[in-house]
Amino acid sequence: MIKAKKSLGQNFLIDKNILKKIINITDVKNKTILEIGPGTGNLTSHILNKNPKKVIVIEKDFNLAEMLEKKFKDKVKVINDDVLKIDETKLCKDKLTVFGNLPYNISTEILSKWIINLKDCFWFDLLVLMFQKEVADRIIAEFNTSNYGRLSIISSWKLNIKKICDIKPDAFSPKPKIDSTLLCFYPKKNFVKIKDPNNLEKITRIFFNQRRKMLKKPFNQLFNGNEKVLNKLNINLNLRPQNLSCDTYYHLVNEYENLIS
Ligand code: SAM
User: Fold this and answer.
1) CATH annotation of 197-260
2) Spatial CA neighbour of 25 closest among 190, 186, 188
3) Is the pLDDT of residue 120 over 80?
4) Which of 7, 27, 38, 59 is least surrounded, with the fewest CB atoms within 10 Å of its CB?
5) Domain ranges of the chain
6) How do beta strands 180-187 and 159-167 pair?
7) Does 163 have pLDDT greater than 70?
8) What superfamily in CATH does domain 6-187 come from?
9) For residue 1, what pLDDT is reported?
């Protein structure tokens, strides 16, 4: 009997209909699959039933990793490590299809790490990820809404995002106190080129530091009142950070990189 560890965000998905829904999002036959935090292997079993080429899982909990090795033997490559320490690009030459019912406490950190560290080429063809609903709402938020912020801007930079469904606590054991949401992320063919993605983190951090204040202060901090940038991007400094579109932020990063180069 596995006792769920709260510190590792262990809420195991037990609802068979949701498990089926997840695995039917994409055809995994002959694909190489990466699963983050497989837990007791409920989703892993469903993935294996669909004849993938290879399944790699990353599980931080030593006991669970050992259990998964015994359960799946050579059908699954189990990596007992922290996903935040892994370089996913070195796992396999194939493009990976990624599944993860992510531990809530590090879900945004994982997503940001993947996006910020992306090089010219995508190492995955699809991410199917479960988030706390409130986090998913921030990821998919449009500008001019209260949920819109850094996470929406960073997530949409190189990825198209599709909401699949919300999931109630009953689908998990133990039941979490919050609702969850399943999202899919697809690589974009075209996106605004940024020299150093850390600048996207920096600019959005400075702008959203005081999200209720007008744009004047963060803009002046970064661009010293540069009117050319204002006119080029058609920015009204009396607006607030949530009123600028994602594209405007990406172009602001371009302007910032020109300024400091
Ligand atoms: N995928 C399983 C399911 O749906 O039943 C379990 C999901 S549970 C929400 C999160 C899983 O991620 C747990 O098994 C937990 O041990 C694992 N985990 C937590 N932190 C991790 C980390 N930093 N790296 C890898 N796995 C982690």
Assistant:
1) 1.10.8.100
2) 186
3) no
4) 7
5) 6-187, 197-260
6) antiparallel
7) yes
8) Vaccinia Virus protein VP39 (3.40.50.150)
9) 67
